[in-house]
Specification:
The chain is an all-alpha fold. It is built from 19 helices and no strands.
């Protein structure tokens, strides 16, 4: 039951950060109205969030075992609690930029620590994969709840109203509550440290050497391809609905911002139970084949859709409801491959490995959005989404080699642990 307290703490912290991280679209819309900003000026908020995540992950991931994972998570929560409270106290665009900078820095600390902690509190690969899926599922639930929470504080009748800033009192309180939960939840972190003391420089260069291992190299390619697909579809689905399915703007946004993430949340929470019983490799192959089948079968339904004068949910194209369900099959892939690579490495390398996960996830997401947008503009939305079959096929290939590499690495780790125990 002690581990359930820790798991609850991890799920709670991921829920809080899901709301903060995915609020950037809503905040951009609000600050443009409140502070009379151009689109290009407001768009910098995305960079404050993403670049700080990648930079901090690269610089400090290998050092976090020294600080302690529990301390790092509490520090991250304390930072965002203060940053969120500053929003309504000192309302300005500068404060908002600093808030997203603080959120990015904190999430880098938190994600590395959360992933490393999951390795410390799970007993085998299946429990690890199951916990990772539930964790990512809670993140998607946080995304959905965040949209509802921000919507409750936005004054639609007055675009200049700053009433939406009061949502940050709630988010600050949630951060403080999460911090207090961690304060009374001890975590045994000794397995997360190397047996032989090392210097900070050795830890950092150890992370870079880790990236050169065949296991990690094929994993990086797999996670890059997956995030490329998810971000490409997730970012451009509302535009696909509007320009290809001829749906009104509000319905296009609701379909992309609700049905797709809801499908991912359900898929990950369900996969938590599936992964506890079955090996990840056959499950992910089924998921990838189902994704490809959905693309091939559903996209033809989007051909030749005629515009309707007063479209309603009852008259909307069927593709608008079926295609976002690709999230159900997409959902288990990211947490499962993360779990597989972490389970195949010694626990003292989990923090450094998570740093690499965060960096290449960010690169894959940015690349996916850019490529899909480019193809969307040049060849149309159907072609852009049909091209998702290319990375889907590529992942089927990389997963074959990734599985072989994880089996060899896990056997080596088990042999080394057995030798150490015998000594």
């Amino acid at each position: 039951m002690h581990n359930w307290r820790i798991k609850f703490s991890l799920f709670l912290i991921y829920f809080v950060f899901a709301i903060l991280l995915n609020s950037v679209g809503t905040v951009i819309l609000q600050v443009m109205s409140n502070y009379d900003l151009a689109h290009s000026d407001a768009a910098i908020l995305e960079a404050f969030k993403d670049l700080s995540i990648a930079a901090v992950s690269f610089l400090v991931a290998s050092f976090l075992p020294r600080l302690g994972f529990r301390r790092a998570m509490m520090l991250g929560l304390a930072i965002v609690a203060v940053a969120a409270a500053a929003q309504p106290i000192v309302p300005s665009f500068l404060t908002t930029k600093l808030m997203f900078l603080a959120t990015g820095v904190s999430f880098a600390l938190v994600k590395v620590s959360v992933f490393a902690t999951v390795g410390l509190i799970t007993n085998d690969r299946r429990e690890h994969a199951s916990t990772m899926n539930v964790l990512e599922g809670m993140f998607m639930i946080g995304v959905l709840c965040g949209g509802v929470l921000f919507g409750a504080f936005v004054d639609a009748a007055d675009p200049k109203s700053q009433s939406w800033l009061n949502v940050y009192w709630v988010l600050s309180a949630l951060s403080v509550f999460s911090l207090l939960v961690f304060a009374v939840t001890p975590i045994d972190e000794h397995e997360g440290h190397q047996a032989k003391p090392t210097s900070a420089a050795e830890d950092f260069f150890g992370m870079l050497k880790l990236a050169a291992r065949p296991l990690v190299g094929v994993f990086i390619l797999s996670v890059f391809l997956y995030v490329l697909i998810e971000q490409g579809i997730g970012t451009w689905l509302p535009t696909f609905n509007k320009e290809v399915l001829m749906m009104p703007a509000d319905m296009s946004i609701q379909t992309g911002a609700v049905i797709f993430p809801l499908a991912i949340a359900i898929g990950r929470l369900s996969a938590g139970a599936v992964m506890a019983r079955f090996s990840w490799y056959p499950v992910l192959n089924v998921c990838l084949l189902a994704m490809a089948a959905l693309v091939i079968l559903v996209l033809p339904l989007a051909s030749g859709v005629a515009a309707q004068e007063n479209m309603s949910w009852g008259t909307a194209p069927v593709a608008a409801f079926i295609f976002p369900l690709i999230g159900l099959f997409m959902a288990p892939i990211y947490p499962a491959i993360n779990s597989a690579v972490l389970s195949a490495l010694p626990k003292h390398q989990h923090a450094a490995m998570t740093g690499l996960i965060v960096i290449f996830s960010a690169l894959g997401g940015t690349t996916g959005s850019l490529i899909t947008g480019k193809v969307f503009g040049l060849m149309g939305g159907q072609t852009a989404f049909y091209l998702s079959l290319v990375p889907i096929s590529a992942i089927l290939v990389t997963l074959y080699f990734f599985r072989r590499a994880t089996v060899k690495a896990a056997e080596a780790v088990e042999a080394a642990e057995a030798t150490e125990a015998a000594a």
